Amino acid sequence: MNAREFLDVYRGYRIPHFKLIEHRNWWFTFSAVLIVLSLVGIFVRGFNFSIDFEGGARISYPLHAQVSVQDVEATMARFGYADAKVQIVGGDTVQIRSASLSQTGTASSSASGSASASPATSASVGASASASEPPPGTTGNTTALLNALAKQANVAYTDVSVQDIGPTWGAEISKKALRGLIVVLVAITLYIAFRFEWTMAAGAMIALVHDVTITAGVYALTGREVTPETVIAILTILGFSLYDTVVIYDKVKENTESPALLARLGYTKVVDLSLNQTVMRSVNTSLVVLLPILSLLLFGGETLKNFAFAMFIGVAIGAYSSIFVAAPMLTVMKERQQARRAPQPSRGGVQRPKTAAKVGGRAAETAEVAAASDAAARSATARQGGGSRQRPGQKRRPPAKRKRR
After folding, report:
1. Residue 188 has what pLDDT?
2. Mind spelling out the 3-state secondary structure of the chain?
3. Domain limits of the chain?
4. b/e per residue 306-320 (b: at least 16 CB within 10 A)
5. Which pLDDT value is given to residue 31?
6. Residue 369: its pLDDT value, please?
7. Would you state the pLDDT for residue 37?
8. Which CATH superfamily is domain 16-48+169-341 in?
9. Residue-level pLDDT at 125
């Protein structure tokens, strides 16, 4: 394919002739490798859940002194938080994750000085609070800890920001996320089975599980933090992947409804033709979606980057699975259905189609009946005209001519 032909295919002027279904074992092998790596990351490394899921406290403050991670960890351990995770980001910001600082497990309030009931509210001890006022909802031990951290970093006490979430809130968020994922998968399965057929619904579910597993595996392998924004992105990924799969399945359904095309090519080649007719549409749609997500991933804030990272991985994997997983899996299931409906070998080892055997038996019975009827008719004719037979040696007289009047 030269550059002009490729450009015509890309613009949709020509239908390509890619052997997508013929090489399905290649795509299955590639997907299997990705899934194995993802499962290793999930079960070996595990996820880096945010405090929204696990509960705990997040402390953040600027760094204006020469302090190492070990120094901050020692300060946290002195106040009873030896398992705290300390990071120095960019050389000028300290971020600490530890167990919950408050006894009630609720989040501390913002800089206004009033307690907040929302567990997800961040506590920022801002300029409106005086230096002698501890953050709302903290104990005396926690106040001393924050003072020690501020003194160590050579910053004001009011510059320390605390976000505290109890473990009960994190467990509730996790349950709701899992419940939402299950409801979405069941609803998608019922819709596709009603709109198309159950084999297409099964192929779409395999593709969706494929997308979610690989996206989760990438998060586990890279160690990125799993936040509520990640869950929202994964649910969005499911919808996008489903859209692409439904477009392909709709084209397959349209082409398989043509008896002439189905009889000439067969189901597998009809699916391959449908893929070639829709592959450039899927590629172009995915590129249009990936470009703005890439801009968010490169230039967005920290919250937007978490969302954009999950979206970028999921949209790319979803576009791949719609073409190289969902449609080939449909052909595999259809071929197995046809194999089960195929005739079974006879006892003698010779395979004889059932329909052909039935037709052959009926034809033999019809031939026997016809032969018997013919024989009966000949014998009846012989009995009726037995006395008028021509004797041997007797000449046959020519018929008499009729006289004309």
Report:
1. 82
2. CCHHHHHHHHHCCCCCCCCCCCCHHHHHHHHHHHHHHHHHHHHHHCCEECHHHHCEEEEEEECCCCCCHHHHHHHHHHCCCCCCEEEEECCCEEEEEECCCCCCCCCCCCCCCCCCCCCCCCEECCCCCCCCCCCCCCCHHHHHHHHHHHHHHCCCHHHCEEEEECHHHHHHHHHHHHHHHHHHHHHHHHHHHHHCCHHHHHHHHHHHHHHHHHHHHHHHHHCCEECHHHHHHHHHHHHHHHHHHHHHHHHHHHHHCCHHHHHHHCHHHHHHHHHHHHHHHHHHHHHHHHHHHHHHHHHCCHHHHHHHHHHHHHHHHHHHHHHHHHHHHHHHHHHHHHHHHCCCECCCCCECCHHHHHHHHHHHHHHHHHHHHHHHHHHHHHHHCCCCCCCCCCCCCCCCCCCCC
3. 16-48+169-341, 56-165
4. bbbbbbbbbbbbbbb
5. 94
6. 37
7. 95
8. Multidrug efflux transporter AcrB transmembrane domain (1.20.1640.10)
9. 37
Q: Please, which residues have CB within 8 angstroms of residue 404's CB and are 6 or more apart in sequence?
A: none
Provide block-wise average pLDDT over 10 residues at a time, the chain (405 residues). Answer: 75 81 92 94 88 81 87 87 84 84 46 35 37 45 85 88 74 76 83 88 90 90 84 80 87 88 87 89 88 87 80 90 91 86 59 45 43 45 45 58 60
Please report the pLDDT score of residue 39 as a whole number. Answer: 94
Are 206 and 325 a contacting pair, CB within 8 Å? yes
Hey, what amino acid is at 271? V
